[in-house]
Sequence to fold (166 residues):
Amino acid sequence: MFDNKRHFISELFRRHKRETLGYLTRKVGRDAAPDLLQDAFLRVLDCGATGEIADPPAYLRRVASNLAADFSRRRKIELKIFAADSVSFDAPSEEPLADDLIQRDQRKRMLASAIEALPPRCRQIFVMRMHEDVPQDEIARRFGITKNMVDRHLRVAITRCRLALR
Fold:
């Protein structure tokens, strides 16, 4: 009996797969159609008396039509419940994690200590360049030193800051 049913379903599938998939694609879209096609054939397979079905292709179309209608109703309800512009409570927060905030604060303190520990002129040049965005030529002019000397002070400051953050 089971072999007859399996043969019946495989033959129905072979003959009407493309047509049923096309119908479902028109009704529910390309993404959901293959899953509904599989569900339709599983429902036909679960039907106890496949031999009593007078018109198997029509029965398959009815099952597919019912599945498509159920899917569309479910989709409408989901869209009402989960509106695209509403904020989901399950969505991850855009706020940084507490551990990240603590780590960021520690790094800021370490960097501030490293800058404070720089020699006075080196610290002034570093702050002017990095925080005040003063060009190196202007820094050299203000201190009456060469641009190469400004570069040297910046290299020292950056190296010490990197070491402090390790």
Notes: The domain at 98-165 is CATH 1.10.10.10 (Arc Repressor Mutant, subunit A). The first helix runs from residue 2 to 28. The mean pLDDT is 85. Helices lie at 2-28, 33-46, 56-81, 98-116, 120-130, 136-143, 147-165.
